[in-house]
Design brief:
With about 725 residues, this protein is mainly α. The protein contains 29 helices and 14 strands. It folds into 4 domains: about 120 residues, no CATH class; about 160 residues, no CATH class; about 70 residues, no CATH class; about 180 residues, no CATH class.
Length: about 725
């Protein structure tokens, strides 16, 4: 049997003292030297020195970090995690549990006992804790990657790989799906006798932290849901031991206090809410409460849905108890409370349906990482929200989620495609990293280059702030646009930060470079669609100075849109972190509640629909509609190859094989991307896409966009019949 670490130390010291006493208690012995050796000097009798009494306890001050370790849960020899198997026959820890519940088990797992690393090869003796030798051995020094229950592997880790080997749970969505598949039920709401509760186990902090990368929660991917990934805090406060003292495991509260004012205890951390969290996740109307309370609020909503579903759909009321295995029990008196007589193993819940099993797993996942709100609260909130939403599909009275929010504003929406596109690669390429990774912009601003960066969970404070103590920002005076123009807001370097990304990736210059002097109406295999990319608000605002849209030769176009003083830059009109327009500020001058209705002094019917009272947004939208019809007419009549557009599917323009004007599911494939490009069609398609991808163009620079859309329709009108439009502004 493996002795507890403290007992090993004591025993070792006693043996050493015993050897000393034994040596001193004997006469010095002489021996004849081997042949050829120089004879030793004849010894003389010596007096054994005085001995000191053997200490009852070893001098623990000589053991580094002993006191911190001894006070931790890892050293608690009386705790259930180290004694659960004491009454088993034989009294030993099974291989499936020994890795994290015994010192020799983990040593076996890392291969420090001479066995193969990565697996526990045998059952192990009871009676040990997580001691020095557990984490400090040759095997852990080689440990740089961790395989999660889902099969996902995280590599390139430092010492946190040791922590994550155990703090990852024992289940994932893979095991939940396997259990459901094995039950072989007809649908989501059929009770299956062979289906049971899947338990993630305890303190799965790495699941919260790595999010969708390790798929520890149940993700509703069949509903096309996407999830947050590895949550990056700030530099040097990202790993397990950055935030926890490695031997005591206590939270380093002083580290939190460096940035978060008012944090003096672990409980104070519950009140932390950063500026990247500007939505009301649980829908209770409180945008000031800490993320801990947002997680808890969504958890309560899910539990309400679970209990309602169990009673109404599964036909058996349910209660939950966080400290009693197997956690879910039959609510025999249907009072919604876990009574002492109900939370017994014989009364464990048995009426599981696939839908209920998924939700119950996510609820348990949120409970069993009590620090999830710090480790990866947004991932956990997404799981809770999605499970509630899924249960609502089967409830006659759904839980109200109308005021709750699942996702963050765009810059912090780590679950969105803009940040998750490169997960399989692990790195965001240099051509995309500046705007699609948290570290890309700082690298570009400090080094002047775009290089590959790790995929991130949205932007972070350090993306724009060069000092997190003073929260100062990178200073940018001018920004180079895709056309080559160097532009910026005068005396507003903060807003120029925005322009680094909100400028698009193409321009009049790049389109001209593509079409060169080719015949305007002849398809050319060398041509392909030129995509401006998304939210090129900066290029729109600066108009012809940036030349973000394709401008036709011989035409004059509006320049930078100058609003009134105080409302001319990005942050004048948008909340810096939430990104939402400051609509209330618009109402100060424009006597409308909705900015989409703003028209100012424009009296022309620019889109030719006879309505001069609609907002500029309406004028632009009608021009877009007419442009799409015009380019589709041109593609069919001139090029003989019908075209259709899908704003959500790359590469956006597809062959319209059935000629119905829309992209049908079978047409939405990369093999069916549109290929019969002529220069005239390419220019028109570019401008149509540009107007689509700046949804705020009617505010950023309506005159410029209207001019370009009108000119594009008119250019197509030189070869095909197009719908009439109004006067050019």
């Amino acid at each position: 049997m493996k002795r507890p670490f403290k007992l090993v130390i004591i025993t070792g010291l006693l043996l050493v003292i015993g050897f000393i006493l034994a040596a001193c208690g004997q006469q010095a012995q002489t021996t004849n030297p081997p042949a050829g050796d120089t004879p030793a000097v004849e010894p003389t009798e010596q007096t054994c020195p005085e001995t000191t009494p053997c200490p009852i306890q070893p001098d623990e001050s000589n053991i580094p970090f002993y006191a911190a370790w001894a006070a931790s849960g890892h050293a608690d020899a009386q705790a259930e995690p180290f004694n659960h198997w004491n009454e088993e026959d034989p009294a030993e820890i099974p291989a499936s549990c020994a890795k994290c519940h015994s010192s020799p088990g983990f040593i076996d797992f890392v291969g420090a006992d001479g066995t193969a690393a990565g697996a526990v090869d045998a059952n192990h003796a009871i009676g040990t804790v997580i001691g020095c030798e557990t984490c400090h051995n040759e095997g852990t020094l080689q440990l740089t990657s961790v395989v999660f229950p889902s099969g996902a592997e995280v590599s390139g880790l430092g010492r946190e790989a040791v922590c994550m080997s155990c703090h990852q749970g024992t289940a994932s969505m893979v095991q939940v799906d396997e259990a459901i598949a094995a039950a072989n039920v007809a649908d989501e709401d059929t009770v299956a006798g062979d289906l049971g509760f899947t338990n993630i186990h305890y303190y799965a902090a790495a699941v919260s932290r790595y999010g969708t990368l390790v798929k520890g929660g149940y993700e509703y991917t069949d509903k096309e849901k996407t999830y947050d990934a590895l949550w990056n805090h700030v530099s040097n406060v990202n790993s397990c031991t950055d935030c926890h003292e490695p031997h005591s495991t206590e939270v380093k509260v002083a580290v939190c206090a460096d940035c978060h004012t008012g944090v003096e205890s672990v409980d104070d951390v519950k009140d932390v809410r950063m500026l990247s969290s500007l939505v009301d996740y649980d829908g209770d109307g409180d945008l000031e409460e800490g993320i801990y309370y947002e997680v808890d609020g969504l958890r309560q909503l899910l539990y309400t849905a679970i209990q309602a579903y169990a009673a109404e759909v599964a036909g058996s009321p349910l209660v939950y108890d966080a400290v009693t295995y197997p956690y879910y029990f039959i609510d025999t008196n249907a009072d919604g409370q876990a009574g002492a007589d109900e939370i017994v193993y014989a009364n464990s819940y048995k009426s599981w349906t696939p839908r209920l099993a998924k939700a119950a797993y996510n609820y348990q996942t949120s409970i069993k990482d009590p620090g999830s709100y710090v480790h990866g609260g947004k991932y956990i909130m997404q799981l809770l929200y999605d499970s509630t939403e899924d249960l609502n599909e089967a409830l006659s009275e759904p839980v109200d989620l109308s005021m709750a929010h699942r996702d963050d504003p765009g810059h912090f929406a780590g679950s969105e495609e803009a940040f998750r596109h490169w997960d399989a690669d692990g790195m965001v390429p240099g051509s995309c990293a500046k705007c699609h990774s948290s570290s890309g912009l700082p690298t570009f601003l400090s080094q002047g280059v775009n290089v590959a960066e790790p995929a991130s969970d949205g932007l972070t404070c350090e993306t724009c702030h060069d000092n997190l103590q003073e929260f100062t920002r990178y200073q940018v005076e001018l920004v180079t646009f895709p056309s080559g123009a160097r532009l910026g807001f005068e005396d507003s370097p903060d807003d120029n930060l925005c322009l680094n990304c909100h400028q698009g990736r193409e321009s009049t210059v790049s389109v001209n470079r593509r079409v060169q002097d080719k015949d305007p109406d002849t398809p050319d295999e060398s041509l392909g669609f030129v995509n401006v990319h998304y939210f090129a608000a900066g290029s729109t605002l600066f108009g012809t100075e940036a030349k973000g849209i394709y401008e036709y030769p011989g035409k004059e176009y509006a320049g930078e849109f100058m609003h009134i003083e105080g409302f001319q830059t990005c942050t004048d009109c948008h909340d810096t972190h939430a990104l939402q327009p400051k609509v209330d500020a618009c109402q100060g001058c424009h006597q409308v509640d909705d900015p989409e209705l703003i028209r100012m002094n424009s009296t022309g019917d620019y889109d030719g629909d006879g309505n001069t009272q609609e907002g500029l947004k309406g004028e632009i939208e009608t021009l877009q509609e007419k442009l799409l019809v015009s380019l589709q007419t041109y593609a069919s009549e001139v090029l003989g190859s019908p075209i259709a557009y899908d704003p959500l599917s790359h590469p956006y323009f597809f062959g319209d094989t059935n000629g119905n004007g829309v992209v049908d599911p079978e047409e939405r494939t990369s093999d069916n991307s549109y290929k019969s490009w002529s220069p005239r069609l390419l220019e028109a398609a570019y401008n149509y896409q540009y107007a689509q991808k700046d949804p705020g163009a009617y505010v950023h620079n309506a005159v410029y966009v209207i001019q370009v859309l009108q000119d594009t329709i008119s250019d197509l009108g030189t070869v095909v019949t197009v719908e009439p439009i109004g006067p050019r502004p």
